[in-house]
Amino acid sequence: MNMMAPEEEPVKDGLKPQAPGLVLSDPSPQEAADLLREGLRRGRFNAIACGCTVDYEGRSSSKLSWGERLVLVKRDGSLLIHRPTGLEPVNWQPPGAIFDVKVKGGRLIVTGNRISPRERVVIEADRISMVASLEMGDPGEFSMTMTEEELREAVLENPSLVEEGFKPISSELEEPTGFMDVVGRDRHGRMAVVELKRAVASREAAHQLLRYVEPLRRSNKGLRGILAAPGFARGVKRLLHESGLEYVTINLAKAREELRKARGERLLDYVSKRS
Amino acid sequence: MNMMAPEEEPVKDGLKPQAPGLVLSDPSPQEAADLLREGLRRGRFNAIACGCTVDYEGRSSSKLSWGERLVLVKRDGSLLIHRPTGLEPVNWQPPGAIFDVKVKGGRLIVTGNRISPRERVVIEADRISMVASLEMGDPGEFSMTMTEEELREAVLENPSLVEEGFKPISSELEEPTGFMDVVGRDRHGRMAVVELKRAVASREAAHQLLRYVEPLRRSNKGLRGILAAPGFARGVKRLLHESGLEYVTINLAKAREELRKARGERLLDYVSKRS
DNA sequence: TGCTAAATCTCGAAC
DNA sequence: GTTCGAGGTTTAGCA
Fold this sequence. Notes:
2 copies of one chain form a homodimer. By secondary structure, chain A is α+β, with helices and mostly antiparallel strands. Chain A contains 5 helices and 15 strands. In chain A, the strands form 2 sheets. In chain A, strands 1, 2, 3, 4, 5, 6, 7, 8 and 9 form a 9-stranded antiparallel beta sheet that branches. The first copy, chain A, has a 5-stranded mixed beta sheet with strand order 11-12-13-14-15, sandwiched between helices. In chain A, helix 2 packs across helix 5. Chain A is elongated, with a radius of gyration of 27 Å. Chain A starts with a strand and ends with a helix. At the A-B interface, strand 2, strand 3, strand 4, strand 9 and strand 10 of A face strand 2, strand 3, strand 4, strand 9 and strand 10 of B. Chain B binds a DNA duplex through strand 6 and helix 3.
């Protein structure tokens, strides 16, 4: 078995303060268990490469027979088990799991327990090829653009993205049938419900709009329903037409530009007020 | 920098056949790049613990400022970037990405490119604390029980789970409005469309059922629509009633038992035929 | 805690 | 390739 500590020589005493993390290659199950336990205690990011079986019991139940995987155990109680291919973990546990680590019959056994819903993942590992227990600090900020929420903002900033003369009244309005993205009046004063999609709109999107519009039409015969998206799956335009609904093709690049412009103006406004 | 090879001594010649994988601690960006490139060439499972920034451009676009993360690069072109907490990767690339690995300005730069949709993830890493490039074989079989598909099987095996006297006619029947889980006749010969949910049924599930049933009612006035689920969100039962639909509370444990029994019988049947 | 709807959803299956 | 629906979906937001 090999043992390494980044930035310094191998540390035998796992309890030595401020150890920046450890990596063991080909550890015994006991050594792996000790390092994982210490890592959990210290709030480290732990990774175990091993041959293992995995059992899950909870919302569903699953069995995974023996194979080599990478197991990730995070300090917030997240667990991920990754096979050598595929984006998605084959088994997992969302944050909040409580872990039990033990050695039994020469195997490393890691159990992740969660309540609400009650569920459990049991990993039985032999042939552990690596255990890493790493101190990780991540102060980084994550920002994303052109979510549906930003598309909604863009429409509120420049309603002509939907239609010339469209005037939004409210957004995210709740009705018994659900939340409507944008509600407003067209240039003729007719009410319109707009459902926004940031990607190609499917049949389901059309039905989503219909379920908002239909009940409201009982009291408002002239209510328009508009599905606004950069594109439409085959048959969706026809489906909309049959339901008395409409579609608008949204120019995403233009929406992005509108949003950028509006934010720029607000920033300039803010700066001029302060200067 | 330390260097290790599980099962054998450190291998300097990265091209040596059948190297079972390598782990580097505190490598230079160049060493990390070399090992990652070799790992990709050899179809290994690669993991990099590093301080990095991440940019994404594609279906959306995102920026992640500097922090310490674990980057996973799989042989099928999957990429995952995990922060120290949270179940979901902060950035990723589904299978099929083509990777470019280089060193520039003292940094390790890993780019994952995908076509259809066109998207790109760029990782710029400094302070690399670990790179692991691991041979992994995973012949394991994964099986899961009590998916919606199995619930459907259970209902087909024992239709009384839905209603006494219910006789299924077809399942997964496609209509212009979508796929209906189960269609059959009740004890009085009335047609019924059954929508199954393996978890608490939401408003959306009720509307999903309605969109199958409503068009069919034009030609079949007496058509019943039944939402069958282990539970129902607040207001869903009322919504169903208002739409002329019905609900049935499914006993999941009983469904599981029915399925187990039916499969057992088929197995016995199979065995008796062979003996 | 329950519920709604988005997501760079992913994944598999069918057409 | 497109479309559709399930998922142990997860996650954020809100009552």
